[in-house]
Amino acid sequence: MPEQQKRKYTRKRTAEAPAEDDFGRLQPQAVDLEQAVLGALMIERDAYSMISEILKPDSFYEKRNQLVYNAIQGLAYEQKPIDILTVREKLKTNGDLEDVGGPFYIAQLTQKMTSTAHLIYHAKIIAQKYLLRQLISYTSLIQGKAFDETQDVEELMQEAEGKLFTLSQQNTTKDYTQIDPVIDEAYEVLHKAAARNDGLSGIASGFTELDKFTSGWQNSDLVILAARPAMGKTAFALSMAKNIAVDAKKPMAFFSLEMSNVQLVNRLIVNVCEIPGEKLKNGQLAPYEWVQLDQSIKKLYGAPLYIDDTPSLSIFEFQTKARRLVREHGVQIIMIDYLQLMNASGMNFGSRQEEVSNISRALKQLAKELNIPILALSQLNRGVETRQGNEGKRPQLSDLRESGAIEQDADIVCFIHRPEYYHIYEENGKDMHGMAEIIIAKHRNGAVGDVVLRFKSQFARFQNPDDDIIASASDASAYSPVSGNESAPQYAGAANVPPPTAEDDPFAGIPPVDNAPPF
């Protein structure tokens, strides 16, 4: 071989990660295993398919090993044979053959392999070493910033959490499962649903027709509840919270990014106690309303409802809190008000749309991890306002604000639509005064359709259309004659409730009429 051609493949010194850290300690590495794995990939026909999900080029410590694996990965992607000759040709095409040390190094790699029996085990060791190097890199970066007194501590913590989350997502893989245990699990869920009187397999929302569509909110589902401003998103979420946590006593968490915990609880009190919100704000309650408040507010005490009102909550902080709530309090469902107010601090994105996409994806992953339903409220864009006609005012999936990924990640997408808000008082011959429609626009595991609910704006409450009729019947059964006045039935529980004063009674100034006909 001519002298000039020999020099062509003289090994060059390539830029590699430093062998030692600032304390003189060696970086985690397994170069011998790297060479053995690369040799096996070029000799064993099916070797690459065995470790392709475990390793990537960056997993290798030595730069030349990264280049060789990158060439092998490229050949596999092009569905070409992987052997000494094809790898050498691929490296030459990429312009990397000289950097790895020429054909001599490629041939040398094949001599390092003795057996593929432990190939997967060796690949996992290489992946673990890479993960350790990443952890060292991240912690060193955070440590350096921690010594900088100009750094904001909260921002630094979010950045650290963000980087660790990214690292965990990149290195988390879930293996396949044989179908038998999955069938057993599905069968168990079916038996539990059959054993319940309501026939629901998930957490009941408290809205009868809605639960018929969903069979209750299902574990691992991400549910998006979207609407334009003033449609009653928070009122709908709180009405469900009341049904789930207060009435059914199911532990749940409510993350309020828009309102303080006191404001949120005030709205919940309005919902439960049926006292207009403006009266609760100014405290101008009539005596009987004070009694009504005292009696009804007792329902809220002891409810397994956990409220977090952290403003501008990051997705990483949310994940930490959610895991703790499930672990320590057995929380079975989580609500977020609302998604667009969350952020992904500590991660860099090209646009707000990318950030929202990342947040929605992380919410879906967390729902699967914790195996609970997560309900996230979401804003709609102005497309609804610009469309004309009754049908034009109905929300569509394309109206979801800032990201189409929300639609993709969600298992269920529901819209809250109140025709009355747009001065539409009749739909398909139905009176829509005080009514709201819950439009199930996407349902990954079931049917789509519309559910009509009653909306009581003065109490910020959504309820089943026939709840008032049921309540009236139950109230009538609670009436009983009070001793001393058998002819005037009174509510048994109202013995201690004072009658309205003259200023509270609009008929106080009208004198009684003798022999007035009965009404």
Structure description:
- There is one protein chain.
- With 519 residues, this protein is α/β, with parallel strands linked by helices.
- It has 21 helices and 13 strands.
- The chain has helices spanning 3-8, 31-43, 47-51, 63-77, 84-94, 97-100, 102-112, 119-146, 153-170, 179-195, 208-214, 233-247, 261-273, 277-282, 287-296, 315-329, 352-370, 383-386, 389-392, 405-409, 467-478, and strands spanning 222-227, 252-256, 305-308, 333-337, 374-379, 412-417, 426-427, 430-431, 435-443, 449-456, 461-463, 479-482, 485-491.
- It has a nine-stranded mixed beta sheet with strand order 3-2-4-5-1-6-9-10-11. Strands 7-8 form a two-stranded antiparallel ribbon. It has a two-stranded antiparallel ribbon with strand order 12-13.
- Strand 7 and strand 8 (430-431) form a beta hairpin.
- Helix 16 packs parallel to helix 17 (352-370).
- The radius of gyration is 33 Å and the shape is elongated.
- The protein starts with a helix and ends in a 28-residue tail after the last strand.
- The model is unreliable at 1-17, 476-508 and 510-519 (pLDDT under 50).
Rg computed from alpha carbons, rounded to a whole number of angstroms: 33 Å
Query: Mean pLDDT across all residues, rounded?
Result: 77
Helix tally equals 21
- CA distance, first residue to last residue: 118 Å
Strand percent estimate: 5-15%
Question: Which class do the helix and strand fractions yield?
Answer: alpha/beta
Unreliable residue stretches: 1-17, 476-508, 510-519
> How many DSSP E strands?
13
Biggest sheet character: 9 strands, mixed
Global outline: elongated
* Helical content class: 40-55%
What order do the strands of the largest sheet run in, or round the barrel if closed?
A: 3-2-4-5-1-6-9-10-11
